[in-house]
Fold:
Amino acid sequence: MLKVLRGGQLSTVQDAGRMGWQALGVTPGGALDAVALRVGNWLVGNADHLAAIEMTWAGLQVSFTEDTLIALTGARAEVSCEERSVPFWRPLWISRGSVLRMGQVIAGARVYLCVQGGIMAPVVMGGLGTDLRNRFGGYEGRALKAGDTLALRPQQDRYPRLRVLLRQHGSGFASPPWQVSMWRDSGLPGDRPIRLLAGPHQSGLGDQGVATLHSAEFRVLPQSDRQALRLQGVALTAANDRQPSAGVCFGVLQLPPDGHPILLLADHQTTGGYPVIGVAASVERTRLAQLKPGDSVHFVGCGQDEAHRLLQERERRLMTIRHELAWRAQYG
Structure:
């Protein structure tokens, strides 16, 4: 089990999401940074969809009741165990009774704690993740707080040699000398603009409005959450600021009447009536997940063929990482 000593600013149990229920008003939800969740699960020998803890910005502290293999992925943050700095993007052997402490995020917004076996939670509509708005899934449908105890699924030891090597190091934690190279796909903010496909109502901006959308700088507002990134910058104007309500998805860029765009994230509403002026390419979702208040956002136009190519290239890189990781864990 994991014992929560401090809940942090916002820590929730999240998995790959619950798909197929939007017609009933239930958002897919799940981990905002799906790449970090997948790779973290691979690092501990789990299937890539199992539940982990998503930590936002700072503060989570947990203790372990048994020796456990874990991994930290996602944002760069100050994390320590028994007064030693804990590395990211590699398997970590944590001994019984050790306490993991997360400090401030240095770059990005969200850190993922994956544990061998995965976090145990009730299955609701095919998913384990926390739906904060509807208050179900995860741990009692809410953020974690001090005193919570999270059960773990039975550990399937797919990396026995790695476990033997690491547990010889005694108390605290131990890790191998290698880590997964995520320099292209970690999602950490950078200078590269977000690639944006044209939305069905983008033409309503006019040529000048579209040019402004692709050249202006926007800032993420503090009102942002798991539902959406609220952006502020040059106010845009659409020909029709209201549209018939229609289905929306992760990455949709809506334009409300005040002219400041809203970028929908994993906990988005299932339908919306604001004009959809763009949709972020799927490959950009992990970057959207790691944006925090004050971060700068730029957009650049992208076609469907390019969006498909970029996603396929990333999936090939991830599959290479997965196979290399399995080899290292067994023989490296």
Remarks:
- The chain has five helices and 20 strands.
- The CA atoms of residues 145 and 254 lie 33 Å apart.
- Residues 2-186 form one domain.
- The chain has a mean pLDDT of 92.
